[in-house]
Automatic annotation (TrEMBL):
Protein function: Catalyzes the decarboxylation of orotidine 5'-monophosphate (OMP) to uridine 5'-monophosphate (UMP).
Catalytic activity: orotidine 5'-phosphate + H(+) = UMP + CO2
Origin: domain of life: Bacteria
Coiled coil ranges: none
Gene3D superfamilies (alphabetical): Aldolase class I (3.20.20.70)
InterPro entries: Aldolase_TIM (IPR013785), OMPdecase (IPR014732), OMPdecase_AS (IPR018089), OMPdecase_bac (IPR047596), OMPdeCOase_dom (IPR001754), RibuloseP-bd_barrel (IPR011060)
Pfam families found in the cross-reference section: OMPdecase
Organism lineage string: Bacteria, Pseudomonadati, Acidobacteriota, Terriglobia, Terriglobales
EC assignment: 4.1.1.23
Name of this chain's protein: Orotidine 5'-phosphate decarboxylase
Recorded GO CC terms: cytosol
Active site: 65, 67, 70
Species per Swiss-Prot/TrEMBL record: Granulicella tundricola (strain ATCC BAA-1859 / DSM 23138 / MP5ACTX9)
Keywords: Decarboxylase, Lyase, Pyrimidine biosynthesis
Amino acid sequence: MPHSLTPRDQLIVALDYPTAAAALALVDALDGQCLWFKVGLELYLAAGAPIVTTLRQRGFNVFLDLKLHDIPNTVASAVRSVSSLGASLLTLHAAGGPAMLAAAAEAASATPDAPTLLAVTVLTSMDNTQLNSIGVPGTPADQVLRLAHMAAAAGVPNLVCSSEELTALRRDLGPSPRLVVPGIRPTGASTDDQQRIATPAAAIAAGASMLVVGRPITKAANPAKAAEAILHEISGL
Ligand SMILES: O=c1ccn([C@@H]2O[C@H](COP(=O)(O)O)[C@@H](O)[C@H]2O)c(=O)[nH]1
């Protein structure tokens, strides 16, 4: 495994909730099993920066999934703005291009306590047809590889990708980049709106550093049991 992380270091639970109270109820229900939580657009727009600081005060690691995508100056300023919150990871869209990524990387390296930047390649909800329909030729894997090389050259080597691209990414980029993988579905779980999916074990075996899991845990009848099953599935791999 590229990063020698324990299963609890590898599982990020996506807190896709409309209020801080609902998100924190799920955190409480997991009863300390999970160390990482993802705050995405829904929760951040509803609850703002205090949800990040609350999670940090409770001792959890925060992945701030804001998927920044704007002109270089604006994205660099946003990186500086969120750096004081204490999130460990922050996303921006690789499709913003090399100048945007380089400006963000420069801002992060010059800002104390800046999060590690992750470049989002091709959303796991997109398949071949959807990608081609926005004017990108080829397969999601082609585009992920193209964006990954561009992002690394711009100073953002860590990525969000699907499990389907992991083998090729590890072949090209080696063990160092942190590859964070959503679109995780335990066997038998509903795929929802995800297109490029894998089981937790398959994604870790293919080279994922960390897994992002939302609905298979948050919508489960017993979220703690669902999280425990995923941790069990990836332990010993
Ligand atoms: O390509 C991407 C990038 C981010 N996500 C986010 O991950 C979670 C996945 O939630 P599930 O409920 O497990 O599908 C969600 O917050 C997305 O915004 C992604 O799915 N794909």
